[in-house]
Amino acid sequence: MSRERVVSADLLRTMPLMAEELVDATDHEIIALLREDARRTFSDIAAQVSLSTAAVKRRVDRLREKGVITGFTVQVDHAKLGWGIEAFAQLRFFGSTNVEEIVETTTRIPEAQAVFTIAGDPDAVVWLRSRDMAHLQRTIDELRRSHRITSTRTLIVLDSWVRGEDRPE
Q: Whole-model pTM?
């Protein structure tokens, strides 16, 4: 019995950290503040979470080192850049198509913002941005010409909400 406990303890020590062990409530607050404004200063964050500036910097450095924070970004109004149409295309591929081929087929076009390979039907969902409806149609036609895709279904976005992003006025 004691041997089993020793083995279990050894196994627990070698297991990867669970997400709950990586971050605490203060880390979650810091992450939320950075998601609101990635340019926020450590001193501003420190004042909001009741820590010193140095303590906030150490926490952010640790979160980056552990891969919880993977980068800092800017929010863009794509419509103001001329890419006002947003859509999702459900794609069905031939049965022998592997995941790498699905990703390669979809990411070679600049209109693809992200690709999600999924279990079940369809095989993938691609998030697309285009300048107008004619551009979207040309994009879908280009995907269909890949000869790997057996069918598509396009869903045009009317409005959206994304956690952590302000809605454009």
A: 0.70
